[in-house]
Amino acid sequence: MATILITGGTGMIGTALSRLLIEKDYRVILLSRNAPALQPGTSAGGLLMAHWDPSQQTIDPEAIRQADAIIHLAGAGVGDKRWSVKRKKEIVESRTNGCALLVRALGEIPNKVQTVISASGIGWYGSDPAIPNPRPFEETDPPDADFLGETCRLWEEAITPVTAMGKRLVIFRTGIVLSRKGGALEEFRKPLRLGVAAILGSGKQIVSWIHIDDLCRLYLQAIGDPAWQGIYNAVSPRPVDSKSFTLELARHIKGRFYVPVYVPSFLLKIVVGEMSIEVLKSATVSEKKTRQAGFQFLYPSIEAAMSELEGRPGITAK
Predict the structure, then answer these.
(1) For the segment 160-191, what is each residue's pLDDT rounded down to a tens digit?
(2) Which of 118, 173, 185, 189 is geometrically suited to a Cys-Cys bond with 159, CB 3.0 to 4.6 A?
């Protein structure tokens, strides 16, 4: 039974991924600031906790010794708060400090880790040059110069030194993750409780998304298949414009009982500040490399994803 060490394992993605790994007979250790020390020879099976604190650069050495693979998800939520100078620093350092701690630990502590899988984001790519974008962004494209582009660049660079230690490194640049438990979809649901389908800006901007089940399956496949190496876009095959995304969700939640309302760009800038740039950004990202590696999506279309997540497949039969 292989042991998977996960950072950020109590978040939306980490919780779902841990559940899947345990179902597939992996042993999972979650790193947490509040966990006690992990004891040598801890019974195999189930879910275990171990201590780490990236801000203090401390980690339980026993967790590193027991791990066969590491999945690095930890990082402050990009959309959780307004982007003050302090918050931007926290977003970057919550990612890079964790990477630095893992790199140092793997270099100093005897271990059997063969694979490191790190999250990243499609914020790497910036905005589409045109709508529609004649050429979706691919993994070989350079990072954008904006805040998220720079954040992703620093994030990926910080974990890359594990390759010099002979570890197989996989990086997933992840799109908007759709889940029934939190995340971006919950923010779209809020106005719908009042019967309002809030279309942001023009509604023409492209959303590159992925169902959480497909994302977790991507991590599972990358753990088990040594051919996976390098950077992959974790997005569905069919990105969709923001208006279609919102209306599809509205149909599944409210049927015909909703009112589409456009939220102007200037209002979004007032409400969320600089973060509005990301909310209104169009990013068409290619999943071609991921599919060529042999991955098959369970939810390739927004219709299929919404039907599964909202549990009302009869409303939009397409």
Answers:
(1) 999 999 999 999 999 999 998 888 888 888 89
(2) 118
> Residue ranges per domain, the chain?
3-177+209-235+285-298
Distance CA 206, CA 221 (A): 27
Q: What is the pTM of this model?
A: 0.92
Q: How far is CA 68 from the centre of its chain?
A: 22
How long is the chain? Answer: 318
25: number of Cβ within 10 Å: 10
**62 and 48 in contact (C-beta within 8 Å)?**
no
Q: Fill in the DSSP letter of residue 44.
A: S
Single-letter amino acid, residue 129 = P
Q: Which three-class secondary structure string do you get for 146-210?
A: CHHHHHHHHHHHHHHHHHHHCCEEEEEEECEEECCCCCHHHHHHHHHCCCEEEEECCCCCEECEE
> Cα–Cα distances in Å, from 309 out to 215, 236, 240, 246?
14, 15, 17, 14
